[in-house]
């Protein structure tokens, strides 16, 4: 799985479906975050899966291990492809999440991939040190959280493109990296502090990229999606081909 996930950061299911209808028969991979999920419930995921979209359910779970285990059991039953939790919840919590996903997976299907959020791409080095009171270089923190996630049996992490090469050197090619903060060269970075282009993500070795406003707020979303995806893959192709 090497997708470009479109972040559906919208308030209603209708907005999301109306947006995706512009892609006609194409079924790009999508990310459902807290805004869309909390406002509309599991039904939005069911609708997207019925339409044939790969779904990344990005709820960034963070709680005591038992609560996360039960939550992941439920999320797995939705048939989604990828889920997230916060690496800062610790190894025991991540192990419980993995257990919940295994228990909740639909019959005959693999459990969703699970990746741990290391440091948000909106987080700067200054915020890391001064606001979060995390010592040292932000990249070292990402590497530490990745080590914990892999020890817990997770598939990989959410990180910025800037950390991917270092992760490959430390942990090999098997760690699955999801990289938000993707922008075309010269475009508005919005609130992202550690952004990168699709080509930079490809060269670094990202397994999946996430793009939201760059596509969803464009007046030519399908054209922009194709442009970003072509740069990401280094060829003309669609996610589901």
TrEMBL record:
Keywords: Decarboxylase, Lyase, Pyrimidine biosynthesis. Catalyzes the decarboxylation of orotidine 5'-monophosphate (OMP) to uridine 5'-monophosphate (UMP). The keyword Lyase applies. One of its GO terms (molecular function) is orotidine-5'-phosphate decarboxylase activity. GO terms for biological process: 'de novo' pyrimidine nucleobase biosynthetic process; 'de novo' UMP biosynthetic process. SUPFAM superfamilies: Ribulose-phoshate binding barrel. This is Orotidine 5'-phosphate decarboxylase. Homodimer. PANTHER family: OROTIDINE 5'-PHOSPHATE DECARBOXYLASE (PTHR32119:SF2). It is an enzyme of class 4 (lyase). The gene is pyrF. The active site is at residues 58, 60, 63. GO terms for cellular component: cytosol. Gene3D superfamilies: Aldolase class I. SMART domains: OMPdecase. Substrate binds at residues 9, 31, 58-67, 121, 183, 192, 212-213. PROSITE patterns: OMPDECASE. Residues 3-228 form the Orotidine 5'-phosphate decarboxylase domain. It comes from Salicibibacter cibi. It comes from the Bacteria.
């Amino acid at each position: 799985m090497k997708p470009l996930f479109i972040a559906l950061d919208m308030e209603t299911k209708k907005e999301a479906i109306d947006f995706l209808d512009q892609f006609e028969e194409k079924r790009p991979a999508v990310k459902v975050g807290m805004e869309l999920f909390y406002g509309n419930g599991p039904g939005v995921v069911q609708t997207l899966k019925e339409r044939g979209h790969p779904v990344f359910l990005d709820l960034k779970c963070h709680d005591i291990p038992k609560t996360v285990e039960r939550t992941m059991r439920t999320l797995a039953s939705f048939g989604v492809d990828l889920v997230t939790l916060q690496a800062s919840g610790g190894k025991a919590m991540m192990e419980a999440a993995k257990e919940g996903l295994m228990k909740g997976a639909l019959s005959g299907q693999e459990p969703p991939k699970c990746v741990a959020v290391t440091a948000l791409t909106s987080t700067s080095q200054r915020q890391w040190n001064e606001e979060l009171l995390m010592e040292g270089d932000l990249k070292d923190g990402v590497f530490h959280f990745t080590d914990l996630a892999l020890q817990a049996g997770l598939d990989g992490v959410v990180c910025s493109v800037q950390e991917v090469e270092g992760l490959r050197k430390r942990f090999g090619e098997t760690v699955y990296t999801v990289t938000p903060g993707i922008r075309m060269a010269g475009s508005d970075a919005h609130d992202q502090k550690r952004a990168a282009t699709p080509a930079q993500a490809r060269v670094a070795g990202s397994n999946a990229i996430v793009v939201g406003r760059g596509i969803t707020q464009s007046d030519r979303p399908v054209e922009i999606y194709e442009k970003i995806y072509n740069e990401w893959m280094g060829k003309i192709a669609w996610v589901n081909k």
